[in-house]
Write a structure and sequence with these properties.
two-stranded antiparallel ribbon, single chain, globular, alpha+beta
Length: 207
């Protein structure tokens, strides 16, 4: 079963992650449910703050060239359904607006880059392994280390909390870019206990 955070655990995570250089990235992952590779591949032109939209058009992945060197590839998302438009709220838009002030003013510039270092003075595309390790360090500092969480926990949390709040599973599937809404029901049926209770209460009221 996918590991997801409860609301209070998300807030505990944010208390720590907001002090992290990648604070905007963590907010995007939890608030939108996008795959990490999709967030890593976002460019300036994909973020429309005026309309409150994020466009998922590509994903950033790492592979090896013929000489065995690790290289990044900016290609298509996982499936056809993965290419999508996601609505964002005013709070996340504000966070992104502040973050974009630190990003190169070029439509094709990546929104999220690795931090500059002696080995990489200009920054560069995010490495999933490094970001995953950073996620676990934040979770540990927030007291969430024993949950068995991973970088994908942000995506699982988005889905679980949306379903628990009553958002229709088809809308959740569309936002997450699943090729079939049934995948949401199969993987996250545990997040629907309140709806099952409603079914029982509705019929019981008729007796």
């Amino acid at each position: 079963e996918p590991v997801a955070f409860e609301k209070d655990q998300v807030l505990s995570f944010f208390e720590v992650s907001d002090l992290d250089p990648y604070s905007a990235l963590w907010r995007v992952l939890f608030a939108t449910g996008v795959r990490p590779s999709e967030a890593f591949g976002l460019t300036r032109e994909d973020v429309d703050l005026e309309k409150g939209r994020i466009h998922i058009r590509r994903a950033l992945r790492w592979t090896r060239d013929e000489d065995g060197n690790r290289i990044h590839v900016l290609g298509l998302p996982k499936t056809k359904k993965s290419k999508r438009e996601i609505r964002i709220g005013p709070k996340l838009a504000g966070i992104l607006r502040a973050h974009l002030e630190t990003v190169e003013d070029d439509p094709g510039a990546l929104v999220f880059l690795s931090k500059k270092s002696s080995k990489n003075p200009g920054g560069g595309p995010l490495d999933r392994n490094n970001i995953a390790k950073r996620f676990l360090r934040i979770a540990k500092t927030a007291g969430l280390a024993d949950l068995g969480a991973s970088l994908y926990s942000a995506r699982h949390t988005f889905c679980t909390l949306q379903l628990a709040a009553g958002t229709h599973y088809k809308a959740v599937a569309a936002a997450m870019g699943h090729k079939s809404p049934s995948l949401v029901l199969e993987r996250y049926s545990h997040a629907l206990p309140s709806q099952l209770d409603t079914v029982a209460d509705t019929m019981d009221a008729m007796l």
